[in-house]
What does this fold into?
Amino acid sequence: MTLAGKVSGARKNIDKYKQVFNFAFGTRRMYDFIDDNPGLASYSVDYVNSAEVISRNDNVVAINACLEVDLFGQVCSESIGTRQISGTGGQLDFVEGAYKSKGGQSFLCIPSTFENRDGEIFFNIKAILTPGAIVTDPRTMTHMLVTEFGIGDLKGKSTWERAETLISIAHPRFREELIEEARKMNI
It folds into this structure.
Protein backbone atom coordinates (compact mmCIF):
# COMPACT_ATOMS: atom_id res chain seq x y z
CA MET A 1 0.00 0.00 0.00
CA THR A 2 2.93 2.31 0.68
CA LEU A 3 4.50 1.62 -2.71
CA ALA A 4 1.12 2.35 -4.32
CA GLY A 5 1.01 5.72 -2.53
CA LYS A 6 -1.96 4.77 -0.34
CA VAL A 7 -0.19 4.91 3.04
CA SER A 8 2.06 7.77 4.12
CA GLY A 9 1.26 8.49 7.78
CA ALA A 10 0.56 12.13 6.88
CA ARG A 11 -2.74 12.23 8.77
CA LYS A 12 -1.46 10.73 12.00
CA ASN A 13 -1.42 12.70 15.23
CA ILE A 14 1.63 10.84 16.57
CA ASP A 15 4.54 9.22 14.74
CA LYS A 16 3.61 11.41 11.78
CA TYR A 17 4.92 10.13 8.43
CA LYS A 18 5.99 6.87 10.07
CA GLN A 19 4.58 3.38 9.68
CA VAL A 20 5.05 1.86 13.10
CA PHE A 21 5.49 -1.89 13.54
CA ASN A 22 6.75 -4.36 16.10
CA PHE A 23 8.00 -7.28 14.03
CA ALA A 24 8.20 -8.26 10.39
CA PHE A 25 8.31 -11.60 8.65
CA GLY A 26 8.11 -12.02 4.92
CA THR A 27 9.83 -11.98 1.59
CA ARG A 28 13.19 -10.62 0.45
CA ARG A 29 11.26 -7.80 -1.27
CA MET A 30 9.69 -6.82 2.07
CA TYR A 31 13.05 -6.94 3.88
CA ASP A 32 14.58 -4.75 1.18
CA PHE A 33 11.69 -2.30 1.66
CA ILE A 34 12.25 -2.21 5.43
CA ASP A 35 16.04 -1.89 5.28
CA ASP A 36 17.13 1.66 6.14
CA ASN A 37 13.64 3.03 5.30
CA PRO A 38 13.15 6.38 7.09
CA GLY A 39 9.37 6.05 6.72
CA LEU A 40 9.27 3.05 9.07
CA ALA A 41 9.77 2.78 12.81
CA SER A 42 10.14 -0.45 14.75
CA TYR A 43 9.08 -0.08 18.38
CA SER A 44 8.51 -2.44 21.29
CA VAL A 45 5.21 -4.30 21.54
CA ASP A 46 4.22 -2.36 24.68
CA TYR A 47 4.14 0.79 22.50
CA VAL A 48 2.83 -0.59 19.20
CA ASN A 49 0.03 -2.59 20.85
CA SER A 50 -0.90 -0.01 23.48
CA ALA A 51 -4.59 0.87 23.19
CA GLU A 52 -3.81 4.25 24.74
CA VAL A 53 -1.13 4.99 22.12
CA ILE A 54 -3.30 3.68 19.26
CA SER A 55 -6.23 5.86 20.35
CA ARG A 56 -4.11 9.04 20.15
CA ASN A 57 -4.52 8.91 16.38
CA ASP A 58 -7.86 10.06 15.01
CA ASN A 59 -9.95 7.87 12.68
CA VAL A 60 -8.13 4.62 13.45
CA VAL A 61 -9.63 1.67 11.57
CA ALA A 62 -8.85 -1.77 12.99
CA ILE A 63 -9.81 -4.87 10.99
CA ASN A 64 -9.57 -8.29 12.64
CA ALA A 65 -10.98 -11.76 12.08
CA CYS A 66 -12.83 -13.82 14.66
CA LEU A 67 -14.15 -17.37 15.05
CA GLU A 68 -17.46 -16.91 16.85
CA VAL A 69 -19.56 -14.33 18.64
CA ASP A 70 -22.45 -14.70 21.04
CA LEU A 71 -25.68 -12.71 21.26
CA PHE A 72 -24.15 -10.56 24.01
CA GLY A 73 -21.39 -9.43 21.63
CA GLN A 74 -18.55 -11.40 23.24
CA VAL A 75 -16.00 -12.38 20.61
CA CYS A 76 -13.80 -15.46 20.47
CA SER A 77 -10.84 -15.28 18.09
CA GLU A 78 -8.57 -17.82 19.72
CA SER A 79 -10.26 -21.19 20.22
CA ILE A 80 -12.95 -23.60 19.21
CA GLY A 81 -14.23 -24.52 22.63
CA THR A 82 -11.15 -25.53 24.61
CA ARG A 83 -9.06 -26.24 21.47
CA GLN A 84 -6.75 -23.27 21.00
CA ILE A 85 -6.40 -22.15 17.38
CA SER A 86 -4.51 -18.88 17.75
CA GLY A 87 -3.12 -16.46 20.31
CA THR A 88 -4.57 -13.12 21.32
CA GLY A 89 -1.90 -11.14 19.53
CA GLY A 90 -2.77 -7.46 19.56
CA GLN A 91 -6.41 -7.84 18.58
CA LEU A 92 -7.96 -6.49 21.77
CA ASP A 93 -5.40 -3.67 21.87
CA PHE A 94 -6.36 -2.53 18.37
CA VAL A 95 -10.08 -3.12 18.95
CA GLU A 96 -9.94 -0.92 22.06
CA GLY A 97 -7.59 1.64 20.49
CA ALA A 98 -9.85 2.10 17.47
CA TYR A 99 -12.97 2.11 19.67
CA LYS A 100 -11.52 4.98 21.73
CA SER A 101 -9.98 6.86 18.80
CA LYS A 102 -11.81 10.05 17.79
CA GLY A 103 -13.78 8.92 14.72
CA GLY A 104 -12.25 5.44 14.97
CA GLN A 105 -13.91 2.17 14.05
CA SER A 106 -13.10 -1.42 14.85
CA PHE A 107 -14.32 -4.11 12.46
CA LEU A 108 -14.44 -7.77 13.48
CA CYS A 109 -15.05 -9.96 10.45
CA ILE A 110 -16.56 -13.43 10.49
CA PRO A 111 -18.32 -15.70 8.01
CA SER A 112 -21.85 -16.40 9.23
CA THR A 113 -21.37 -20.17 8.96
CA PHE A 114 -18.66 -22.80 9.07
CA GLU A 115 -18.69 -26.14 7.26
CA ASN A 116 -16.66 -28.97 8.77
CA ARG A 117 -14.97 -31.81 6.90
CA ASP A 118 -18.13 -33.92 7.10
CA GLY A 119 -20.18 -31.22 5.39
CA GLU A 120 -22.02 -30.22 8.57
CA ILE A 121 -22.85 -26.52 8.72
CA PHE A 122 -22.52 -24.60 11.97
CA PHE A 123 -23.31 -20.98 12.63
CA ASN A 124 -20.69 -18.59 14.01
CA ILE A 125 -23.11 -16.13 15.62
CA LYS A 126 -24.41 -18.17 18.53
CA ALA A 127 -26.65 -17.73 21.54
CA ILE A 128 -23.64 -18.42 23.76
CA LEU A 129 -20.02 -19.11 22.92
CA THR A 130 -18.98 -22.73 22.64
CA PRO A 131 -18.28 -23.98 26.19
CA GLY A 132 -14.62 -23.38 26.98
CA ALA A 133 -14.22 -20.73 24.28
CA ILE A 134 -11.77 -17.95 25.07
CA VAL A 135 -13.26 -14.45 25.11
CA THR A 136 -10.80 -12.35 23.12
CA ASP A 137 -12.89 -9.17 22.97
CA PRO A 138 -15.43 -8.37 25.68
CA ARG A 139 -18.87 -7.18 24.64
CA THR A 140 -18.10 -3.69 25.92
CA MET A 141 -15.39 -3.26 23.27
CA THR A 142 -17.11 -4.89 20.29
CA HIS A 143 -17.91 -2.17 17.76
CA MET A 144 -18.62 -3.29 14.19
CA LEU A 145 -19.23 -6.94 13.41
CA VAL A 146 -19.16 -7.91 9.73
CA THR A 147 -20.59 -10.99 8.00
CA GLU A 148 -21.50 -11.57 4.37
CA PHE A 149 -25.02 -10.43 5.37
CA GLY A 150 -24.04 -6.97 6.57
CA ILE A 151 -22.41 -4.85 9.24
CA GLY A 152 -23.79 -4.64 12.76
CA ASP A 153 -22.84 -1.63 14.88
CA LEU A 154 -22.85 -2.80 18.52
CA LYS A 155 -21.19 0.23 20.12
CA GLY A 156 -23.15 1.47 23.11
CA LYS A 157 -26.13 -0.82 22.53
CA SER A 158 -28.15 -2.59 25.21
CA THR A 159 -28.11 -6.38 25.46
CA TRP A 160 -31.33 -6.85 23.49
CA GLU A 161 -30.22 -4.30 20.85
CA ARG A 162 -26.96 -6.21 20.43
CA ALA A 163 -28.79 -9.51 20.03
CA GLU A 164 -31.21 -7.99 17.53
CA THR A 165 -28.33 -6.49 15.52
CA LEU A 166 -26.34 -9.71 15.53
CA ILE A 167 -29.34 -11.79 14.48
CA SER A 168 -29.90 -9.39 11.56
CA ILE A 169 -26.44 -10.21 10.14
CA ALA A 170 -26.50 -13.94 10.97
CA HIS A 171 -27.15 -16.49 8.23
CA PRO A 172 -30.89 -16.30 7.42
CA ARG A 173 -31.21 -20.07 7.90
CA PHE A 174 -30.36 -19.70 11.60
CA ARG A 175 -32.09 -16.43 12.53
CA GLU A 176 -35.32 -17.96 13.86
CA GLU A 177 -33.33 -20.34 16.04
CA LEU A 178 -31.29 -17.43 17.42
CA ILE A 179 -34.47 -15.45 18.14
CA GLU A 180 -35.84 -18.43 20.08
CA GLU A 181 -32.57 -18.83 22.00
CA ALA A 182 -32.60 -15.11 22.86
CA ARG A 183 -36.14 -15.52 24.22
CA LYS A 184 -35.11 -18.51 26.35
CA MET A 185 -32.20 -16.49 27.77
CA ASN A 186 -34.56 -13.57 28.55
CA ILE A 187 -32.71 -11.24 26.24
